[in-house]
């Protein structure tokens, strides 16, 4: 036996609770991140010094959000982290002013398809 407790191809194992400090809920305000919530880096909250103090997982999420707006589900998949961990880490980033989170418009609040078709037909008639 070679004395290693993990598979060399898998790399070292870091438990999710170690990344979040044992927390399971994002932030003291109880912010809830839906899977479809959209996350973008806040250009006003970007401070290289403050960002350098963040953990590697936090910085990885910021890097993913810098290239384009991402949903919570996309971030979890791209970072290869459980959704619960990503939610806690995003709560940290939100409280630190590093990111902004928005909700997509619920389908019930979108315009009726019939109205959109009438608008398109009206535009074509011009």
Strand content: 5-15%
Q: Trace the largest sheet across and list its strands.
A: 2-1-3
Number of strands: 3
Helix vs. strand class: mainly alpha
Q: How far do the termini sit from each other?
A: 78 Å
Shape: elongated
> What gyration radius follows from the Cα positions, in whole Å?
20 Å
Mean pLDDT reading = 78
The major β-sheet equals: 3 strands, antiparallel
Structural overview:
With about 130 residues, the chain is mainly α. Helices cover about 45% and strands about 10% of the residues. It contains six helices and three strands. The protein has helices spanning about 15-20, 50, 55-65, 70-80, 85-95, 115-125; strands at about 40, 70, 100. It has a three-stranded antiparallel β-sheet. Helix 3 crosses helix 5 (about 85-95) and helix 4 (about 70-80) crosses helix 5. The radius of gyration is 20 Å and the shape is elongated. The N and C termini lie far apart (about 80 Å).
Give the helices and strands, then pairings.
Elements (H helix, E strand, L loop, with lengths): L15 H5 L17 E4 L6 H5 L3 H12 L2 E2 H8 L3 H13 L3 E4 L10 H13 L1
Antiparallel strand pairs: 1-2, 1-3
Helix pairs in contact: 3-5, 4-5
What's the short version?
This protein is mostly helical and 126 residues long. Helix content is 44%, strand content 8%.
């Amino acid at each position: 036996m070679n004395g290693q407790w993990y598979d060399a191809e898998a790399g070292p194992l870091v438990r999710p609770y170690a990344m979040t400090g044992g927390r399971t809920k994002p932030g003291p305000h109880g912010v809830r991140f839906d899977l479809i919530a959209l996350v973008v880096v806040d250009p006003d909250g970007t401070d290289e010094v403050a960002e350098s103090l963040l953990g590697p997982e936090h910085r990885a999420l910021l890097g993913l959000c810098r290239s384009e707006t991402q949903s919570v589900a996309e971030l979890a998949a791209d970072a290869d982290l459980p959704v619960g961990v990503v939610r806690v880490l995003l709560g940290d980033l939100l409280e630190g002013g590093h990111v902004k989170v928005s909700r997509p418009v619920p389908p019930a609040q979108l315009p009726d398809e019939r109205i959109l078709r009438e608008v398109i037909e009206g535009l074509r008639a011009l």
